[in-house]
UniProtKB/TrEMBL annotation:
The lineage of its organism: Eukaryota, Viridiplantae, Streptophyta, Embryophyta, Tracheophyta. SMART domains: REC. The gene is LOC104771127. InterPro entries: CheY-like_superfamily (IPR011006), Sig_transdc_resp-reg_receiver (IPR001789), ST_Response_Regulator (IPR052048). This is Two-component response regulator ARR22-like. It comes from the Eukaryota.
Length: 135
């Protein structure tokens, strides 16, 4: 997909939160979102994601890593759902057996993708979660 073919969602004013403890993954996810015109913030663990929402921040999409210190993705997703957060949450992880994937989905995910996240996988998430991306 060439740069000209990528949709620009800046006009839609979509916002995203990247929740990942790995700097490289944070950077990749931020850049992919930015390439689509999606404003985004980054936090390093599940507790920071919960705290961000407690302080009044709200996001359309949350890209949630599964394996993190200080509240993993499963715990953070459950907590956010308990708080009534209705953001679309996509789980992203490098490793997950079927049991872990099932537990992560049951925590309240809307979608699940394996890392590394690519522009194609991100577009797939946006399509699946009804963000009406025009390509």
């Amino acid at each position: 997909m060439t740069r000209e073919e990528l949709p620009n969602l800046a006009e839609s004013k979509l916002t995203a939160l990247v929740v990942d403890d790995n700097f490289v993954n944070q950077s990749i996810h931020q850049k992919l979102l930015a390439r689509l015109g999606i404003q985004n913030d980054v936090v390093c663990n599940g507790k920071e994601a919960v705290d961000a929402h407690c302080s009044g921040r709200n996001y359309d999409l949350i890209l949630m890593d599964m394996d993190m210190p200080i509240m993993n993705g499963i715990q953070a997703t459950k907590r956010l759902r308990e708080m009534g957060i209705e953001s679309k949450i996509a789980g992203v992880t490098t490793r997950a057996n079927e049991g872990e994937k099932k537990e992560f989905m049951e925590a309240g995910l809307n979608d699940f993708q394996e890392k590394p996240l690519t522009i194609s996988k991100l577009l797939s998430i946006l399509h699946k979660l009804d963000f009406y991306v025009q390509t």
